[in-house]
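Data availability (excerpt). The following record was deposited with the supplementary files.
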Amino acid sequence: MKNLLFFVVAMLVANLSRAQWEPDIRLTNDPAGSSTSISNQWNIAASGDTVHVVWSDTRDGNEEIYYKRSVDGGLTWGADTRLTNAPAISGHPSVSVSGSIVHVAWCDLRDGNGGYEIYYKRSDDRGASWEADTRLTNYWAGSFNPSIASTGLVVHMVWYDYVDYNWEIYYKRSVDGGITWKPDVRLTNDPANSYSASVAATGDMVHVVWVDYRDGATGEIYYKQSSDGGVSWGQDIRLTNDPDTSRRPCVAVSDSVVHVTWYDTRYGNAKIYYKRSADGGITWGEDTKLTNDPDGSRMPSIAVSGSAVHLVWQDDRYGNTEIFYKKSDDGGLNWGTETRLTSAPGVSQYPSLTISGAVIHSVWTDFRDGNGEIYYKRNPTGGFPVGIGNDSENNSHQQISFYPNPASNSIHIRLRNNSNETSFLTIRNVLAKTLLSKQIWNVETLVDVSGLPEGIYLVSVTTNNIQVNSKKLIITR
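Predicted structure:
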C-alpha cells in the first residue's frame, strides 16, 4: 500500500506544475484604464505569503500609481491603494520586496521640466502603510522605465536617460533599504541609444541587461555586471548578434546561474529567446528559441527559484493576444511544453511573474471587460522542480536536510547555517498555506508532523526574512 501511495505521489508531483494553474482573478474594477508596465519591469513581487502588485491607473482623471496586496498567497486581495497624488502623469511602475520592505519606482512628470523623472516610495510593513514619495533623478531631459531589485537592505535600480543628449543606461543604489540613495552611475557610454534596462541581484552580484544600437541599425542585447554590490562595474558584453532587432530583455538570477530572455524578429516575426550563463555572467551559452509559431510572441518576463526557471509572455497565435507560460526544471538547459494561461475575448498583454516558495504568481493587463483591467493568476505548486528529491540547494552556506522522507509521524531536521542569523522552518501544503512555523538553529530538531494528513508538503528555511532553501516532504501512513 505504501509503495502504491509513493508511486501515486511521485506521479502527482511530476504533473503539479502544469496542472495547477487556478482561475483568473480580476484585481481592478473601475471604468478607466488600468495597465501593467509596457517595458520589462516587474509589476508583481512576493515574500512568503504576501504578494504585492503595482500598476498605473487613470480612474482619478490623471494617470497615477496604484498598489494592491494579498496576505494569504494570492487567495484573497485587499483594497486598491493609491500611491501617488500629483497633477501630472505617473506611470510605468516597478516593484521589489525584501523581507518586510516593499520598494516601488516609477516615472513621473510632476516637476514640469519637460521630461519624466524617476520617483520612489517604500513601505517597511509589507505594504500596510507607505512613506512619502522620493524624487531620485533631477535632470532637464527624460528619465524612463525604472527596473528595481533588492537583496537584504541593498536596493538596485536601473533606467534609461537622455541627460547626455543620447539615451544611456543609468544605475542607482541604496544600502539602507531605500531610506537614502547613492549618486547616479552612468553604465553605458556609446554614440548610439541604449534602452529598456532590467536588473537582478543576489548577494553582491548585480546583473543588468538592456537593448543597445551601437552595432548598427538594429538593437542588440547587452549585459553588464557588478561583483561588489554596485560599487564598480565590469565591461559591456554583447549577448546577441543577429540581423534584426532584439527587444525587451529581462534578467533573473539564482546563485551563479544568470537567465536572460527577450523577443527577437530575426526570422521575420517576433519570437521569445533565452540565454544563460552558468558562471555568474562571465561566459554565455547559445541563444535558445523558446517559441515557434507563425504569429508574434512578445514581452517576456522571467523568474527563477533554484533550478526552476519560469517564463510568461504575450502571444498572438490564436488570433487574439493571450498570456502563455513555459518552465525549465534544470536551470534553463531544457524547457517543457507551453501552457496557455488566458482564453478571453479581449487582448491580454504585458505579463509579469514572481515566485515565492512553491507558488508562481502572474499578473497582466486584460481587455476582456471592455477596458484595461489588472488580472492575476497563480499556480500553488508550480514552483516545485519536477520529481522527487531536493528542490533547491541555492545557498551553499545554509542548507536544510531531514529524514525520513517519506515520513509518518515525525521528521528529524538539521540546518547547516554558517550565517549566524536566526532561521525559521516553515511547512506549507500544496495550496501554499502555512501549517507549521518554528525557529531552528544549527542543530538537529525533531518536528512532529503527526497532525498533517498524507500528501506533499514544502519544507523551507528562511533567514533574515529571505527564503534560501526548500525541499519536498512526503507524508505517508
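Summary of structural features: The domain at 21-379 is CATH 2.120.10.10 (Neuraminidase).
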